[in-house]
Design brief:
14 strands; alpha+beta; 9 helices
């Protein structure tokens, strides 16, 4: 699933390929998409993009020709107004620029250029979980972007630690876009792994340490940056790791492992890495992690039916239930007091 870095790189891609292009006509929607039509038609307009966490905004701006170059009409009489379209990528959304004769499969929204050879900017979404909102704005339920609004993001988390949301395990809270806008499944695994934080530790317990990490006024800016890079806390890593992915280039996470994802695959240390263990959280999402002595005790009492690849390596034998042992329970309680659903199993 595309996460914050992938959406930010998608916005940069749109700005790069659309630079100098003038689009024309109506916006075309595929017949199979359940998203609404985009009621925009213009003889000449340009497209720009920006991202915020797990959202991308396309701005369609009508233009007129002046001295051979397009300029915004600024809502002149008879011309359509500027339109913003907010995209959420779902499981597989992305943007592509192609020739009109080579429109990719699963292109569910299309913007055609005016000049020949004609090209088309496409929102491509094979699994069709993505969506767009016409004349939309950033979703108010989402918090500040972990990449582009770091200070606001940090303050938003630390000022709400008393909320009930932080009673849950840290692995679940990291996916809560109200606080961690831009973090997804692979980033949460990498963040927790690099800090050696047990995934089912209570979120408040983990995050309270960041309350006491305030920068000292005596330090210069360069020294503050050095401290942040050498000894980041979990909130700093929520910013630093997405930026690392962006700086890798390419498209970042790619579920089919094609199109330049080798650098990204080499960057991963935990997510989908051989030798790591997996469990499902209370929301059914898979969390990747490495068992060590500290968090093996956190996994005590988790029935082996939750392990997709067998009991985690390093878990004391005394904590591993035999296949015939109690499997009547419908759930297990972790250190945060949450319950993960299980399938009943008897021998």
């Amino acid at each position: 699933m595309p996460e914050g870095p992938e959406l930010h790189m998608a916005s940069r891609f749109v700005n790069r390929v659309c630079c100098g292009l003038v689009f024309s006509g109506s916006v075309e929607k595929s017949a199979v998409s359940k998203n609404r039509e985009v009621p925009f038609q213009c003889e000449a307009y340009i497209i720009s993009a920006q991202s915020r966490g797990k959202e991308v905004k396309l701005t369609l701006t009508p233009v007129k020709e002046e001295d051979g170059s397009p300029s915004a009409t600024d809502g002149e009489a008879g011309s359509p107004g500027q339109m913003d379209i907010i995209f959420r990528f779902g499981m597989s959304g992305s943007f592509e620029l192609a020739a009109v004769e080579e429109i990719p499969k699963h292109a569910h929204l299309r913007f055609l250029t005016r000049d020949c050879p004609r090209q088309v900017l496409c929102f491509v979404d094979p699994r069709r979980f993505g969506s767009w909102a016409v004349n939309g704005s950033w979703q108010p339920s989402r918090g500040p972007c972990v990449m582009l609004q770091y200070e606001m993001f940090r303050q938003n988390v630390l000022s709400h630690l008393s909320d009930n949301a932080f009673n849950k395990p840290i692995c679940e809270v990291l996916l809560n876009q109200r606080y961690f806008n831009g973090i997804g499944n692979y980033l949460r695994a990498e963040i927790l792994h690099r800090l050696k934080v047990p995934p089912f530790e209570r979120a408040r317990t983990v995050l309270e340490a960041s309350l006491h990490k305030e920068p000292t006024d005596e330090l210069t800016l360069s020294k503050k940056v050095k401290v942040k890079l050498e000894n980041p806390d979990i909130l700093e890593l929520c910013h630093l790791l997405p930026m690392e992915v962006i700086n890798l280039g390419g498209k970042g996470y790619n579920s089919d492992r094609t199109d330049g994802s080798s650098a990204f695959a080499a960057w991963l240390r935990c997510y989908d890495v051989s030798g790591m263990q997996t469990l499902r959280d209370a929301n059914g999402r898979t969390i990747w992690f490495q068992v060590n002595r500290r968090n093996s005790l956190r996994l005590a009492g988790i029935p082996c039916t939750t392990w997709s690849t067998g009991p985690p390596h390093g878990l004391p034998p005394s904590l591993v239930p035999e296949p015939h042992q109690v499997m009547e329970t419908k759930g297990w309680s972790n250190s945060a007091g949450q319950t993960a659903s299980l399938e009943k199993r008897k021998r």
